[in-house]
Structure to design on (472 residues):
């Protein structure tokens, strides 16, 4: 489980220090107006920005892990995704991995997409591929920044179903930024809202 | 062989050529007219000044004076490297990295060549030490500043990609590795090109100078080869050091990309 203790994003954030616990196999949805500090909070948790406060994963504080190891275990999927090789498949450790191929088909993608040029994939396809790229590290915690924002309703449902099954199976904790009340209703165990710089519990259903 | 000494009239005639160029560029509105004049005046003053300094230095070649002049040259070179950066590091880092790399590239190589190769007596004889150091500083400066500039500019451009790599658990070394290698190449290519073209496309300046002053061509060539190799080694090691130090300073201990350590132009 992940425990946040007085996390204060230092970049002039309007968000007050936050503390909460994300249990194993739990999915918490985070919502709030644009610019309220949701993304910065996720960046702080993954230790990508300087911040105050402590984050603990399974009782161990973030700084007790090396930074690369921490980010492998606490995986952040950013709202926009970036690719550095020409081919999609070059971003994966093992393109013939049976689990990867099974995951692709569960997300509605054909395995031939691995040989595709990054520039020829749609935004929605790249969002799903970036999720699978992140899952290669077997993270214990997933921080998802609007992971379905550019997808058609069908793909949105596939991703939700896939992630829900995935977290039950691997006991993964998920912190999911979403603006869609319907989506929150479908996936969340708990809903945290940012209002006027404070984190408060919001409605799930 | 007699050396033809130049009179001041000869220099004025050459200066007229530059003046005509300045007039033409004003006429074509290239916004270069005043720059050309200022640069020409700087060249004249700076070279006359170093001429006098060398004259005095040659007359009483004490190690302390040689070292002092070397130090001044090094610090100015460090400043020049900093001034050429689009995104320079904040604080003393821009200056520090530049000067330290110049020290590696020029000071140590000059020292090495004086003690091991040329072996003048005494080893710090200014007639050898100062021109060698000057050649090295002037030439390696270009490679080092190109290398650092490419590294910082590319990093600013692709910072999202570098962060994406960090988020997948790459170390800072892995995340910047491609950019780092490319920056070293950018710094070294002018020097490699210069070596490849030397003697065919261009007769290098040092060799030209020696031939004009009456040295036998083969002797001049040997010195030129020596200096080319020294410049290559200096540029290579200096650029490597500068790019690696800069890359390290772009990240903190928690492997976070710190573009906030860079200054942005016009800000």
């Amino acid at each position: 489980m992940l425990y946040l203790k007085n996390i204060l994003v230092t970049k002039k954030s309007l968000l007050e220090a936050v503390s909460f616990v994300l249990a194993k196999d739990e999915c918490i949805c985070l919502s709030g107006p644009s610019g309220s500090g949701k993304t910065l909070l996720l960046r702080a948790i993954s230790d990508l920005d300087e911040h105050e406060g402590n984050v603990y994963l399974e009782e161990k504080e973030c700084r007790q892990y090396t930074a690369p190891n921490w980010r492998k275990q606490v995986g952040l999927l950013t709202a926009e995704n970036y690719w550095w090789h020409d081919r999609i498949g070059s971003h994966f450790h093992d393109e013939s991995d049976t689990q990867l191929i099974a995951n692709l088909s569960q997300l509605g993608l054909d395995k031939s997409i691995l040989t595709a040029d990054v520039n020829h994939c749609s935004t929605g396809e790249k969002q799903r591929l970036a999720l699978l790229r992140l899952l290669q590290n077997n993270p214990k915690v997933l921080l998802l920044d609007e992971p379905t924002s550019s997808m058609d309703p069908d793909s949105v449902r596939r991703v939700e179903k896939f992630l829900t099954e995935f977290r039950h199976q691997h006991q993964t904790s998920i912190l999911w930024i979403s603006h869609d009340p319907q989506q929150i209703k479908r996936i969340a165990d708990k809903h945290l809202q940012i209002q006027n710089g404070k984190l408060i519990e919001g409605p799930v259903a | 062989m007699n050396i033809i000494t130049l009179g001041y009239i000869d220099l004025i005639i050459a200066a007229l050529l530059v003046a005509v160029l300045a007039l033409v560029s004003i006429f074509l509105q290239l916004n270069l007219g005043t720059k050309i004049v200022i640069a020409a005046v700087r060249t004249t003053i700076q070279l006359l000044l170093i001429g006098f300094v060398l004259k005095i230095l040659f007359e009483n070649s004490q190690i302390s004076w040689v070292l002092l002049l070397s130090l001044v040259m090094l610090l100015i070179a460090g400043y020049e490297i900093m001034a050429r950066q689009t995104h320079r590091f904040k604080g003393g880092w821009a200056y520090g990295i530049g000067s330290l790399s110049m020290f590696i590239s020029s000071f140590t190589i000059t020292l090495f060549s004086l003690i091991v190769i040329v072996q003048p007596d005494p080893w710090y004889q200014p007639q050898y030490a100062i021109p060698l150091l000057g050649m090295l500083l002037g030439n390696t400066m270009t490679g080092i500043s190109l290398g650092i500039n490419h590294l910082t500019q590319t990093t600013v451009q692709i910072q999202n990609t570098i962060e994406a790599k960090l988020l997948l658990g790459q170390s800072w070394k892995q995340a910047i590795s491609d950019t780092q290698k490319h920056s070293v190449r950018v710094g070294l290519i002018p020097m490699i090109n210069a070596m490849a073209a030397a003697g065919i496309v261009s007769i290098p300046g040092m060799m030209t100078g020696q031939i004009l002053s009456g040295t036998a061509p083969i002797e001049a060539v040997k010195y030129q080869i020596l200096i080319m190799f020294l410049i290559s080694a200096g540029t290579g090691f200096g650029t490597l050091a500068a790019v690696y130090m800069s890359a390290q300073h772009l990240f903190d201990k928690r492997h976070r990309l710190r573009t906030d350590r860079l200054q942005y132009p016009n800000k």
Remarks:
- DSSP finds nine helices and no strands in chain B.
